Each structure stands twice: as structure tokens, then as C-alpha cells.
Lipoprotein (Plebeiibacterium marinum), 277 residues
Amino acid sequence: MRKSTTIWGVASLLIAVIFVFSSCNSGAKQNQKAETIQIEKEEVESEVREFVYPLPTSYEIVEMLNKIEAAYIFDLSNNPANASKYITEKQQAINLGVYGGDLSYASTYNQKQETIDFIDASRKMLEGLDLEAAVSEDLPEQVEANENNKEALVELITDSFYDTYDFLHKNNRAPVSALVMTGAWVEGLYIATHISDKTFNSKEMVEIVLKQKEPLVKLMEILNGYKEDQAIAETIQDLSKMAAIYAEIESTAITQEQMVKIAEESMVIRNKFVAVE
């Protein structure tokens, strides 16, 4: 896994005190200004997006993996070539989420060609779901133009998550958005538990998996709100065993046996989600 200040006399002391005091005042003003800018930014975003994405995005999961220097595994993601094989609304919605997770994974690790491939796969899912209007038409061009700017790239991709979620809710397609979120969450967990055979021996990796308990609880609450929808009901059933495993886990501790169960179940669910006929 990869990833004094010397005082020479009273005069100097006074100068140092004055300097520190001035710096603190300046820092406080800068912090206050930064907080104001952040609040204004959040207010603008809340005005633009009526519906706020309720879970951590896949990017947040894979960024944690990147920070602890976990390697990029090329064949871990869903094959972009499968995109044209997903026909039903449920398949397309779930795999829009899956490919979103893979896109976050590739872009976070600066994998340029893979990022483009997952943009294309995601576009096919958007077209199949009649969601082209949900994201910027020139997103592929923007991604390509920023391929060497990780921060800008991540912002573009994360915004596409938020925009799609907002669009679906504004157009009374909340069940579809729940399926997209499910695909993204499952893919993020799958990547986290299969990125290395040393996952169970890494404190950081264990913490990443443990932190997925609360998002899963939230996700199940969201899905249960639309359980009259057949696709949602099936998805709840798909996640029921995973929910039961996490329900037995304390919020601050997890055993190796539980880690193994989560890894195994994430593979079962994920393989079912990405399967093609």
C-alpha cells in the first residue's frame, strides 16, 4: 500500500509577539473571508440544485483509497464494452451508477484513456434513460480539456452526479435516481474491498469499509420510500443480506470475519448488477 522560532532578547520577543498577533488577526480575517465565500458558494449551489445528493459520492470513496496509495487495478471496473448490452431501465440506471463509480476511480488515479472510456459508457446509459439533458452536452470535451488537471476533472465528474440526481427528481423520476445511487454505492464498496488482497490487514482500508455503514442505512431508507416500484423492490432484496451484515457491525469496530463477508457479498451484488445476457 502506497500511499522554531528562536528568540534573541526582549526586543525580539516583543517583535515576535506583535508579529504573531498581527498574523492571527490577518489569518482570522482570511478564514472569515474563506468561510463567507464557502457559504455563498453553498447558497448558490442550493439555489441551482433543488435536490441535494444524499450520499457520499463514489469519488469520496476512491479518493480515500488514492490517499493511502492503493494501486489502480485496470480490470477491476465494469467493462465499458458492456454498456451497449444493458437494455432495461433498471440495468441502465444501476450501471449508470456503476460506471459513475468507475469514472471516479479512473479520474482520481489520473487514468486518461479509462476516464474517456467511462465517460462514453456513461453517455450510453444517459441516452438509454433519456437523460442527455441532465448533464452538460460538452462534458466529454471538458473532461478531455482538463485531463491533466485532477481537481477540475473531479469537480466536473462530481457535478455530473449532482446534476443527474437533481434532474431526475425535478422530472419525477426519483426511483431511477435511487437505482443510480445504488449502483454507484455498490461499485465504490466493491472497489474498496477488492483493490488489494491486503485489504483486511490495512487499518485505513478497514476504516473505509466501516464508514460505509451509515451511507447504506441512508440508501436503504431511500429505496424503501419507493418499494412499490418493482425494480426498487428487487434492489432492496439484492441489498438485504449486505444490510444485515452491516447491522451487526458496531460503528467503531469490525472483525475480519465481517470484512470477509462484506467483500464476498459486495462481489455477489456487483456481479449481478453488471451481468449481461
Observations:
- Residues 1-31, 33-49 have pLDDT under 50 and may be disordered.
